[in-house]
Design a protein that fits this description.
Rossmann fold; 14% strand
């Protein structure tokens, strides 16, 4: 094994991935397990078809609604009990909210903020004491390019992701003394995810909507495709591995340049 491969290896590490049944979470769980981690997936809607592949890689999938502290505590405690500790936390669970602020109900606001922000708070709260025991750890929060550059069509979602970016930096600073690194990834547009598929299912013209998503990202437009969940997972692997030992409080945009601004004309 090369030195570079060794720095990405996760042998003897225990990881928790929320929202890990589909999309980016699933790709992350699979990649971390392939690199040697013992992975525990929490999801509010486990997918039966994952069973064979998860079993083959030793991934444990549990029912977990990140808005409920009892569910979160149970997920973390089982990972610690069965894995012997906790080294990695990937806060991937999240939902979209595409509505003008004047049409958003209080219940919808609560659902978005509770899932995208409170969920990360609860898992982080319960994970940190166990990471301290291990002498450190790594937390990765799933933000969005909407957390870097707010978007007009989804102000509540943008608010939740912007707050998650601030949360990431604050916790990174607060717990550097514990050797716990905290970073975020800011993806989009990513294909083949539960969130993206839900948006496309609502579209009047699915193919035209896909082209619009691709066109908003300079590199995606040149490549003529969306970003894959595996590409985001590879960035997460870097952030939880020894290869990023001096990286904390950062937010990596995996959006093909979408958060840079209006892309140049293709003419």
């Amino acid at each position: 094994m090369s030195d570079a491969s060794q720095r990405l290896a996760l042998t003897d590490r225990v990881a928790v991935v929320t929202g890990g049944a589909t999309g980016i979470g699933r790709a992350t769980a699979l990649l971390l397990a392939e690199q040697g981690a013992q992975v525990f997936v929490g999801d509010y809607d486990p997918v039966v078809s994952n069973a064979d592949e998860f079993t083959h890689l030793g991934i444990t999938e549990l029912n977990c609604d990140v808005r409920r502290e009892t569910d979160v505590k149970s997920l973390i405690e089982q990972a610690v009990r069965d894995g012997g500790g906790l080294d990695i936390l990937v806060n991937n669970a999240g939902i979209a909210m595409v509505k003008p602020i004047t049409d958003v109900t209080e219940a919808e606001w609560d659902a978005c903020l509770d899932t995208n922000l409170k969920g990360a708070f609860l898992t982080t709260k319960h994970a940190i004491p166990h990471m301290r025991v291990r002498g450190g750890g790594s937390i990765v929060n799933m933000a969005s390019n909407a957390g870097i550059l707010p978007r007009a069509h989804d102000p509540v979602y943008s608010t939740s992701k912007g707050a998650l970016v601030a949360f990431t930096k604050s916790i990174a600073l607060s717990h550097s003394i514990d050797r716990i690194r905290v970073n975020a990834v800011c993806p989009g547009p990513v294909g083949d995810t539960r969130m993206m598929n839900a948006d496309l299912d609502k579209a009047v013209d699915r193919e035209a909507t896909i082209k619009q998503f691709i066109a908003a990202s300079p590199i995606a437009r040149v490549a003529q495709r969306m970003i894959s969940p595996r590409e985001v997972a590879e960035a997460i692997l870097y952030l939880v591995s020894d290869a990023s030992a001096m990286v904390t409080g950062t937010c990596i945009a995996i959006d093909g340049g979408k958060s840079l601004g209006v892309p140049p004309s293709s003419d």
